[in-house]
Amino acid sequence: MGIALLTGCDNGDEANGGAGMVGFIVKKATNKILVVAADPLRERHYDAVWVRRSDHEELLIGQKVEVFFKEDEIETSNPGQGTARRIRVLEAETSGSSRLKPEEAIRSALNRVAYWEIPVITKAEYISADHRWIVTMFDGTNAAEEVQIIVKE
After folding, report:
1. For the chain, which end, N or C, has fewer CB atoms within 10 Å of the first or last residue's CB respectively?
2. According to its UniProt record, what is one Pfam family this protein matches (predicted)?
3. In the 8-state DSSP scheme, what is residue 14?
């Protein structure tokens, strides 16, 4: 199993630097988004949380976000569930001469594996010589091997 239950998250006060988690939006549903941590707790173990928030319509699949949770609001199901106090979109750096933003390449790759329950993004890299992105990911609900999905511009 590749998903952890927020054991490593700090859902402390935002003013004191305590963010709940930083990760990618990998799915959207009514009034919630699934965020999977950008960095593993340990090899192939990533936090994943369905984040409840009524005004997340402006958020897009593929975006990297920082989620600040309401205190003591994390349910330890798998994936976890919590209510966001605030969600901040992190600006992605554009890669070289790419016409696509990293979040657009990730969104395109995620569309190809929409049937996965918990997609985990491990890397998104732009290869400028080939004008393509390589997005590396695996399905966190099983012991699946990583796959590389090519996204051409």
Report:
1. N
2. DUF3221
3. G
